[in-house]
Amino acid sequence: MTRDALSAEEILRKVHSIGDYYGFIPFASLAARHKGSGRPSHSSEMPLLPPLDPTAESIAVFLKQCVDAGLMPSPRQPLFVWHSNITPGRNAPRVAQIQFHAIGTDRALADAVVIHAMRALARDLMKSDYVIRINTLGDKETRARFARELGNFFKKNSAILPEECLTCARRDVFEAAELAIERRFAEHLPAPTDFLSDQSRKRFEELLDYLEATETPYELAPDLLSRSGGWGEACFALTHEDKTLVWGSRYGELARLFFKSAMPAVGAVLKTETEGAKVFPVKRRARLRFAFVHIGDEAKHASIKLAEELRKARLPIWQIIGLESLTEQMYHVERLNPPYLIVMGRKEALEHSVVLRNRATQEDVAIPIEHLTERLRSVA
């Protein structure tokens, strides 16, 4: 059973918590910090955009807010951020939107972390386990090949397809394919994964490897299509009883229009009804006691799996799983200044352990992962 309208305060509490454990910073905090830095912000005009679906339009609005706030992610300093249309002090919107974004990184790790964060949020809010459905339409080259095959499909099957599908295909073959799937005439539709470029195939396999390495259940969904001009590469949805709660995808071409240069980006949007009452400020949890830094793919896999265990234990931990640079991770650690640092490299990940450092005394203690929650509770 999924829930109906939710409290806006409950939504914000959950997303703040999940943001800390998976490494997504509130956009409002980033914008305020940038404003307080004295660096100039400006209001830009919305660039000329391709046709977008409503979810892509909401991401376009968010990207404009990033540019207006002066936030400029890059491969050296990628941006992991969450954003919501819920504003304390105002009435909650009828439909709340929560967005998770990783901008500036092309690694499949970013896609995996966005998926994990959204899955955790969906579980917490709806009290149901959502199915992760995933597909890819690949890069521009792949999408062009797939579009041609879809056009051929509609021509070859014109005698048996509904007229509305054929009419739609003359305008947009991706929209027509979605309509054919909805009308249950999609048995012989071509699969986009049959037309992937080598680069797109490698990217998709890397994402699936991350999901499998973190023991994340998913199903391949060849009928999951992204027809909007804003999407590219892998796309995914979280569904329950045929209802979609979350949609996510890569959107690098859309991001490039705002940042004026190549900008890899992946994001996801959760939409749910709220009770509509006035939103009161959310009381944040106690000062963070622990920061968790990790180096290498093995450590990233382990940290993703540990995030839920540590969150359920209500241990005050911060990490940015998607940041690969130790220097960038330590920059945030210095700013937050927690008393303890948890460190995991490849060696520790293979040994199923971490190093707990008391930052005041610089004392290091090796802790087996199976005893980590107990040990952290003893010093929390």
Automatic annotation (TrEMBL):
Keywords: Aminoacyl-tRNA synthetase, Ligase. This is Anticodon-binding domain-containing protein. Residues 295-377 form the Anticodon-binding domain. It comes from the Bacteria. GO terms for molecular function: aminoacyl-tRNA ligase activity. Gene3D superfamilies: Anticodon-binding domain, Bira Bifunctional Protein, Domain 2. One of its GO terms (biological process) is tRNA aminoacylation for protein translation.
